[in-house]
Design brief:
globular; mainly alpha; 6 helices; about 140 residues
């Protein structure tokens, strides 16, 4: 049972915290650039995916980065089209399903990357709201 809790902590809490920190950094640096924070956060998440891979001990860095990019790049495209309910609902529903079912066993690195990508894609909204209320 302890191993399952470790999987949930590593692959649920770390990506969520990672997404909140990234969106806060993107929003705080808004005066230096004109890029939308939501899109910038999802693109920057791809650059920092090796850090997340090492933090969560997900395995091969390249495979993890590919899995993360499979989620973050299309979500950045959806955000560039415009904000909508589906930009929030789809990542949330998929991420909750993944967290409930994928945390029961070990997965290949690309699946961890996809799981982390949906965690980041969902957590940018609560992170942006938290940043707005605190700062």
């Amino acid at each position: 049972m302890g191993d399952v809790l470790d999987l949930k902590f590593r692959h649920v809490i770390w990506p969520t915290t990672f997404g909140i920190v990234l969106i806060s950094a993107c929003a705080a640096s808004l005066e230096y650039h004109r890029f939308p924070p939501m899109i910038l956060c999802l693109v920057v998440a791809n650059l920092f995916s090796p850090v997340l891979c090492k933090l969560t001990r997900s395995g091969d860095i390249k495979e993890h980065a590919i899995g993360l990019a499979l989620v973050c790049i299309p979500m950045a495209i959806f955000w560039s089209i415009g904000s909508s309910y589906w930009n929030i609902a789809i990542p949330f529903m998929v991420w909750v399903w993944q967290s409930a079912s994928w945390s029961k066993s070990n997965q290949p690195p690309i699946k961890y990357g996809v799981w982390h990508g949906f965690g980041i894609a969902f957590s940018i909204i609560p992170g942006a709201m938290l940043f707005e209320n605190l700062f």
